[in-house]
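Hello Y.,

Per our agreement to keep a running log of every chain we model this quarter, I'm adding this entry. I've kept the format consistent with earlier entries: sequence first, then predicted structure.
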Amino acid sequence: MSLLAWRNRLPSAPPSTRGIRLELVAQLVPPAVFLASIPVAYLVFLASIPVAYLVSSPAARLSWLTLVVVNPVVGILVRRRALLV
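Predicted structure for the entry above:
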């Protein structure tokens, strides 16, 4: 949305190229975190099925708790990667 505003010269002061790039990266982080977390959740789900059969259903439910740790870690890694770009 900011890019559209800048293209139509809506802000009073023109932003620098670096400012535009940083704003765009900041706006792309949430979708990137979401997209990166989908395969992680899928893998945890696939891993929990054998755990449920081989160990127990409570153990499989506990394996889902790994998402509490894995999703924030993926978010941090994606943010770091976005800042390097």
